[in-house]
Amino acid sequence: MENPSRRWRGRTFYNSNYQKQNRRQPRKNEHLDDASKQARLLLDKLLRCYHHRAVIESIIVEPQRAYGSLQQAARSLDQAFRPAFASDKLLQDLQAANVAHIESSLLKILTHYDAATEESENLLRQLCNDKGPPDLASVARQVIHHVGLRCKLDASTVSKFLDRLNSLSNDPSVIDLLATPAAAAPTMTSVEESQPRQEGTDFWNLDDESTVSLNNFFLQKNQADRLESFLAKEVAPLACRHSSASERPEPRLIAWFGPDYSYSGRQLRSNGPIPSGLQPLLESVETATGKRFNSVLVNVYQNGSQFVGWHADDEAVLGERPFIASVSIGCTRTFELKAKSATSPCLSLDLFHGSLLTMSGDCQANFFHRIPPQHHKRGRRFNLTFRWTHEDPNTGATGASLAPSAPSATKTATPNTAVPLTASMAPVDLDESAQSAEHRRIPEDVCSNNDTTTASTIAASSNEPTASTNTETNADSVVDGGATTIGDVAASADATISNDPSAAAGAASDGSPAAGGTTEVASPENGCTSAADDLFVTPPLPRVGLPASPAKRRLPSPDSEDSPGGPERHRPHLNDSPSTFEQPVSLIISRDCRNLVLCPKPFEGLKLPAITEVHEYSLSALPSLLRSAALRNRQCAQSTVLVLPDELLSTDHWRELLSEAIDLLRADSLTRKILLVPSFASGEELTQSLSKKLSPVTLIASPPLKPIVSFSAPDFILALASWLRTLN
Ligand SMILES: O=C(O)CCC(=O)C(=O)O
Ligand SMILES: [Fe+2]
Questions:
Q1: Which residue of 303, 368, 419, 558 has the smallest Cβ count within 10 Å?
Q2: DSSP 8-state assignment for residue 554
Q3: Whole-angstrom Cα distance, residue 182 to residue 141?
Q4: What's the pLDDT tens digit per position in 127-154?
């Protein structure tokens, strides 16, 4: 049987042909456009309410019976909302008495009911006082029931409302409502279940360069529930109402994780690095979108009256054409977009518990978005908006010194083409088991880690709040009580990943779909055994590829296709000499993926059997590598071996990064041992200071290996292996 939600959807203009229909074809119900903008707006809004189909369909089944009621309702509407509705038109429609018109008329009634409590009561008053056909009350009952469901009215609100209704009407069938438990007790669960959602990801091309996508099922319900508990417990207490430039507090609570920065004349103080409990979600969002994020804004809407006004996330610190990834948790709320020059929304979506919405391309340049207040009782909703903050042009302060963005040679969000986006919305499971792109899931443990005590974002350390950029773009947002114009920027809105097979190793930690998200681990080169085997050979474990890493920065090599003249990549904002950053480091991954060695030298031509992958990176990618190491550890490793070069240890900045990276590793309960192998004398002092931090993780300094740089690669591995043996 045809899926009713699809059928219904198909009849609205909310489908992937939005652009086409919006621009070139007259919309359904176009006659209403002329009548009143507000009527259209309300109709648009209602067309989303798929679950109202139940009401509508029952009326369609018995149109004659419903007709009288609707006519009455329309008259009532006419009286109550004359200015808004141009209701003569509506009545004319009703006179035609065909199903489509009846449908849209009822939709209007429902919309109005939903639009504002006072007006709705007014409407019901009219409905109930009217000496209309006998089944009028039954329509009213259905309206109440379904609107109650949609608006998640709790039992006591419904009773109160019905009490009031009762006082307005002597109609016994209305009084009966009070005794109808089905109407009086729509639970949260039944609400969620009653809302048909489409599987897969929908795309809307708002214009040639602006795309919105929505995946209703990004998280499974249990994952979303766990995330909700985590947010309620760990994040909500941190959230507060920030004051706007006009000192008016934002009409919702906000918590910000990432570097401090200012927006719209306000300063947003960071609540710290992204909590480790959100890391799995972050990684899943990164994997699903193929973008990187270094910060997350959490909006907490405590009830339906809290909102965010029209705004665009177009702050300069967020870069050009920011990519926004927004996860919704909790009560469903409406999300609206409108062209900056328009007065009414062009797209309106329900954001469900566990959904992932993205905005890309010129969305922020050309459109505003908002979460309007919704009357009637609504529960709490969390929204997590993942962003990438760049250097603040006003102050020179850096939003984040995390891994570089991918180059911007290719626009990912190709307008009018769902395919590339669909492809980039890859399965989010870090496991290598294949999953359908239609059923993106994140790992079961995604929300189970409530550990917020340790930092996980390496880059969020030392940035002072920046001066105001004061780039509020939209007066509406002020009128609406303040906008969150903290933009949302993906690190790599234009991620381009080399598909060069020769770069496979270098791409290993790249989460982009082009790189496949996982990396096949190569077979051992030969069967020889050596001391190096001892270092790496451990009982076989399932092979995993490197999970998404914040950045892949493969050093250009002569045979690489990397163009030196390619787009400028994000670099750490430091005073250190560039040569420090360009220093090569190698990431060596053991055959069983259980050991990782980061070491300062290229391991060219190294063919040890135990080593399966050698990746070269510039030092600037180190934080990303460590993060990858921690991720990998979480899946299967026992220890991480860090071998760090002099240059790295000798700059304050890198020490900081290192210590944060170690925090990250430490947060991973599987990492029990971190071997820090400094290659020069000052390492000891560093080791001491880090040791305090690291407890209870074992940190071992390695005087025997110095100076590391004098070892050839195989010698180094052998020496390290024998040294490790002495430790056991
Ligand atoms: O809550 C939402 O879904 C939207 C939030 C938003 O637009 C923002 O924080 O910039
Ligand atoms: Fe926004």
A1: 558
A2: B
A3: 11
A4: 444 433 333 344 444 444 444 444 444 4
- Say how far residue 3 (Cα) sits from the centre of its chain: 28
Output the 3-class SS for 6-20: HHHHHHCCCCCCHHH
Mutating to test ligand 1, I would choose from 263, 310, 311, 326 the residue with most ligand atoms within 8 A of its C-beta, which is: 326
pLDDT in tens, 685-703: 555 555 554 443 444 443 3
> What gap in Å lies between CA 404 and CA 568, rounded to an integer?
10
The domain limits of the chain are: 4-194, 201-479, 501-560+572-727
**Bond preceding residue 420 cis, omega within 30 of 0:** no
- What is the sign, positive or negative, of the torsion defined by CA atoms of 647, 648, 649, 651? positive
Rounded CA gap, 546 and 631, in Å? 8
Residue 197 CA: distances (Å) to CA of 9, 117, 192, 617: 10, 26, 9, 43
Neighbours of 101 (CB within 10 A): 19
Cα separation, 580 vs 646, in Å, equals 10
C-alpha of residue 73 to centroid of ligand 2, in Å: 38
Strand order in the sheet with 698-700: 611-618, 584-590, 596-599, 639-643, 673-677, 698-700
CB atoms within 10 A of CB 717: 25
Note the maximum CA span of the chain.
97
Ligand 1 probe mutation, 242, 250, 295, 299, most atoms within 8 A of CB: 299
- 387 and 487 in contact (C-beta within 8 Å)? yes
Q: Which atom belonging to ligand 1 lies closest to the Cα atom of 252?
A: 1
398 alpha carbon – ligand 1 mean position (Å): 23
Q: Which of 381, 385, 473, 480 to mutate to test the pocket of ligand 1 (most atoms within 8 A of CB)?
A: 385
Domain at 201-479, CATH class: mainly beta
Q: What is the pLDDT of residues 365-398, one digit of tens each?
A: 999 999 988 766 678 899 999 998 875 444 433 3
Angular region, 233: left φ>0, alpha ψ -120 to 50, beta rest: alpha
ipTM of predicted assembly, 2 dp: 0.99
Ligand 1 nearest atom to the CA of residue 484, by list position: 10
- Residue 28 C-alpha to ligand 2 middle, in angstroms? 30
User: Ligand 1 pocket by C-beta < 6 Å: which residues?
Assistant: 297, 299, 308, 313, 326, 328, 335, 351, 369, 371, 383, 385, 484
DSSP-derived 3-state class of residue 225: helix
Asked which of 246-260, 279-293, 557-571, 667-681 is least confident by mean pLDDT, the reply is: 557-571
Peptide bond into 696 cis (omega under 30): yes
Q: Are 259 and 460 in contact (CB under 8 A)?
A: yes
Q: Residue 343: CB partners within 8 Å, gap ≥ 6?
A: 37
Cα–Cα distance, 578 to 620 (Å, whole number): 10
